[in-house]
Design goal:
The chain is an all-alpha fold and 71 residues long. The chain contains 3 helices and no strands.
Amino acid sequence: ARKAPDLFALLEERRDGLREEGRFGTANNYNDALASLRRFWDRKTLELERVDKGFLDSYERWMLANGRSIS
């Protein structure tokens, strides 16, 4: 069976590419998003196929419960 893409790995790859391009502000945004998702999804990987409306709704509720704004 083919393994689903890991969102964490994809975000890390993009962040690292941005750093190589000297786009440190955008890379930091990716890093912040990655850290937040890792705190929410306390596992080593986050299969891209798991990220659906239910996942995003749950993540939004978690963010709000942890003092983050709706944006």
